[in-house]
Design brief:
Order of helices and strands: HHEEEEEH
Number of helices: 3
CATH class of the largest domain: Few Secondary Structures
CATH topology of the largest domain: HU Protein, Chain A
CATH superfamily of the largest domain: IHF-like DNA-binding proteins
Shape: elongated
CATH architecture of the largest domain: Irregular
Oligomer: single chain
Length: about 90
């Protein structure tokens, strides 16, 4: 089972000696900075993990699963997380 946010905060608090409130504030600020930087520059590196990258998807054809009718899926911008080589090697 995956860790919950409160379990992550408790673990970080325990290992760093910071209060849970301080760790939660840090995580919130990190997320806020990441969103702003991805929107502005198109990517945000997370040292030791990978990076958030903003990509543009082209328009494409798809099918309505209920009717089988062809539809056009419009172009859009998406955010993806690219995992670093170090994480891949550590996990796999």
């Amino acid at each position: 089972m995956a860790m919950t946010k409160s379990q992550i905060l408790a673990s970080l608090s325990e290992s760093t000696g910071l209060s849970k409130k301080d760790v939660a504030n840090f995580m919130d600020k990190l997320a806020e900075i990441a969103y702003k930087e991805v929107k502005k520059d198109g990517e945000f590196p997370v040292p030791g993990f990978g990076k958030l990258v903003k990509l543009k998807r082209k328009a494409r054809e798809g099918r309505n699963p209920a009717t089988g009718e062809k539809i056009t899926i419009p172009a859009k911008t998406v955010v993806k997380f690219r995992v670093s080589k170090a994480v891949k090697e550590a996990v796999l």
